[in-house]
From TrEMBL:
Lineage: Bacteria, Pseudomonadati, Thermodesulfobacteriota, Desulfovibrionia, Desulfovibrionales
Pfam short name (any one): Nitroreductase
InterPro entries, per database record: Nitroreductase, Nitroreductase-like, Nitroreductase/BluB
Domain of life: Bacteria
Stretches assigned to the Nitroreductase domain: 7-61, 66-148
Claim: GTP-binding is one of the keywords in the record: no
Keyword Signal part of the UniProt annotation: no
The protein's name in its UniProt record: Nitroreductase
Keywords linked to the UniProt accession: Flavoprotein, FMN, Oxidoreductase
Chain segments annotated as transmembrane: none
């Protein structure tokens, strides 16, 4: 898939077929995520790959907007390891870039996913921290349920000329 086509056609997928995702595809997704840029090339990201059905189902109790996880064969939590930061505070940008790379790779591989935010909502951060036994220096940014799409989402341009300013606001 050509890059601009991927950017224009990737959408959040919330319904999945009952079909597994291979370890090879998971590797491809994580390889793409780790190709993201990061401040000072710190690469502070950590990933928790969740494939256990009972754990996936229980995630729906941690977050009000992840009920689709009960259909997904896989989910990945993108976290930041603050011990790896070179420039404090940039972990959000670094891990967001990794998440977006992951979403584009998922789409390019024919899969679907949706980015559900964890940080900065403290009760969500605390719930994921407890469930996945995260040490204090690791912060969960977001969770992506992933699977083979069982829905077709129409893609329309989001370009808005009035949002663009040249040289000054």
């Amino acid at each position: 898939m050509e890059v601009m086509e991927a950017l224009r056609t990737r959408r959040s997928i919330r319904k999945y077929e009952d079909k597994p995702v291979s370890d090879e595809l998971i590797h491809e997704i994580l390889d793409a995520a780790m190709m993201a840029p990061s401040a000072g090339n710190a690469q502070p990201w950590r990933f928790i790959v969740v494939t256990d059905r009972a754990i996936l189902d229980s995630i729906a109790d941690l977050h009000p907007y992840v009920s689709m996880v009960k259909q997904a064969p896989l989910g990945i939590i993108v976290c930041a390891d603050l011990n790896e930061e070179k420039y404090p505070g940039y972990w959000v940008q670094d891990c967001s870039a990794a998440m977006e790379n992951m979403l584009l790779a998922i789409h390019g591989l024919g899969l679907g996913a949706v980015w559900t935010g964890i940080h900065p909502i403290e009760d969500r951060v605390a719930a994921f921290r407890a469930k996945f036994k995260l040490p204090d220096h690791v912060i969960p940014l977001g969770f992506a349920p992933i699977g083979w799409p069982a829905q077709t989402v129409k893609s329309e341009s989001r370009f808005k000329q009035d949002r663009i300013h040249y040289n000054t606001f």
